[in-house]
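Quick one before lunch.
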Amino acid sequence: SKSAPTSPAGLPPAGEAFCFFPRRKTVRILVIGSGGREHALVWKIRQSPLCTDLIVTPGNGGTQLDGVRSADVKPDDILGLLKLAREEKVDLVVPGPELPLVLGITDAMNVAGIPCFGPDRYCAQLEGSKYFAKDLMKKAGVPTAECAVFNDAESAHSFVAHRGAPLVIKADGLAAGKGVVVARTTEEALQAVDAIMKDHVFGDAGRQVVIEECLEGEEVSLLCLCDGLSAVPLPSAQDHKAAYDGDKGPNTGGMGAYSPAPILPDSELEKMTDLVIRPVIKHLAGENHPFVGVLYAGLMMTKDGPKVLEYNVRFGDPECQPLLMRLDGDLVKIMLACTRGNLDPSLVTFTPKSALGVVVAAEGYPGSYDRGMPITGLKEAESEDGVKVFHSGTKFRDGQVLSDGGRVLCVTALGDGLKDAQDRAYRAVNRITMPKSFHRTDIGMKGIRHLEGK
Ligand code: AMP
Ligand code: GLY
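Model of the adenosine monophosphate complex:
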């Protein structure tokens, strides 16, 4: 019989505990988060033959309905997450939201030898600090709005008074997507400075403010898969940040999204990646912080060319839902390759179909809203060809799906072209009932107008 593999004195044989990367052909995965993005990640991960075991923490009604095991550790509890990943012997951690990344989940997991599909804490400052992002864009030569940064309200005031509106006032730190005020008048700009720096409406996130020139144009998102040294673009997507039709009302986390966005066609993805993503990846690698995970550039297509509004260091929600519906490639293979620093672009394949997602939200969102509203018609919605209902804020109790958040569902459809995807998504939305809910009825209209040449 064969003797046991030998190893240097004291070390376990390769492939056992000492091995940094799993040698097994199967993978145990932990997904962190509870939104529609995380439901979509879980849905796509489960399609991979590599994935043998999947846990989501904390997950939602949708992941529960899909039979995915859940844990009860919150996304900001880094030590709790590390303990969970160890106990469950996971081979890959997939953080959905930005908070754990900004808090250093990747650094913590890597110290424990657990691959994590996300950037380290240093790189996550691209999203965690507006000033860090602006400074890096300047060093890397990425086009963006002119800006100035302030640590006290007085100097911010005199800058605003000197420059005059329109201006964009941004709290430096994480503010759940609400830390940006596009001020049309000087008075509004001064009020925003006071709210952030004197009334501390965003707490510590507002210790510094970044004040930017106001850019005009249409917005589009470019998300790239990054393995530390290289970046592979996903097809473009467009979010709808305003709460109501016609881009009216307060800004939200996103009320719907579609892919591709005709304003950034596939033929221009490489060029755009060279302009706004690869210089950043190269710069960070040069600082010994190779960026692993998703780097997302929010772009404004101005008359002077594309400019970066912001970076996110993760999939967008709801952009993730239509993007993952279009992904043909094996997401687990892709994410593992990214953590190993060898992403092969041929793994990243997409259906040429369009995908469009409509968010169903609770009345009052993004302000205060009720929870616990019963939702029906989910099966009927999914009986529509090409439709998947991703849950954003739901829970599953006594055989019933109840609302449990501001954004409740993201009803997503694949179609032959944008119009077809839109028709299918709205037909599905109309089969769902939930008291005190609302949704935008114009998701995708900008893209359709582009295609019609208007
Ligand atoms: P951000 O979190 O930086 O992406 O900002 C949120 C939203 O504010 C963006 O999606 C834009 O609609 C708007 N915005 C941010 N920066 C600017 C800018 N410099 N000019 C015009 N609008 C902006
Ligand atoms: N939908 C925009 C974001 O996820 O930040």
